[in-house]
Amino acid sequence: xxxxxxxxxVDGEALLPAExxxxxLKVLRLGLGDEVCAMDGAGSRWRGEIAEIxxxxxxxxxxxxxxxxxxxxxVTVYEGLPKADKLDFIAQKLTELGAAALVPVKMERCVVxxxxxxxxxxxxxxxxxxxxxxxxxxRGLAPEIAEPLSWRQALARMxxxxxLLIPWEDAExxxxxxVHRALPxxxxxxxxxxxxxxxxxxxxxxxxDIGGRTVTLGPRILRTETAAVVSAALAMQLWGDM
Length: 242
Description:
The protein folds into 2 domains: 2-65, CATH 2.40.240.20; 74-238, SPOUT methyltransferase, trefoil knot domain (Alpha/beta knot), CATH 3.40.1280.10. It has 7 helices and 11 strands. The protein is 34% helix and 24% strand. The radius of gyration is 20 Å and the shape is elongated.
């Protein structure tokens, strides 16, 4: 069953947006009566069927609601701006895992600088990647993609979480499962990932000052994009629904 975003439903039916309709008809060769997963992009999903095709427009009849599939824990990943297209990969995989938000952060050792129009353009690209990934994995809601924040701005947002985790290459002893054992009921979780050069000790101290907990991901150093995905997966396994 293929997944499609829909326009706002009216009387139990909904139109596919033009791009979605074109994909359904020209690429997937779907026809009348074919079943689809219809998603409104705001968290609701339905089992539906193609009820009408007219002049390239596709109308879907919504047969029954599908269960919500958002995780019980809201996981936000703060990613130190990485090089090249690593943010694309991170946005895609975090969407599949069920993360609630991706927040790029300008950290001390970041080489990439995204400001103004460049930052807005990158955010638009990441939102498109997240939206497509949500459709592919039949997730009802794509994660929030924030514009790049300064370190000061990010600290203010990080301080609001129930739990703030800091996977850090110099951390020793404490693992995510140890934190979960102490705080199993956490439901709003922030995870801070350093860029290629890692976080500075000053940044880690600043995070500790707002209640952040450093954790180790093991004896091997992970790339920034690997650390982001692994940390989110472990958090979803411990606090979420994996």
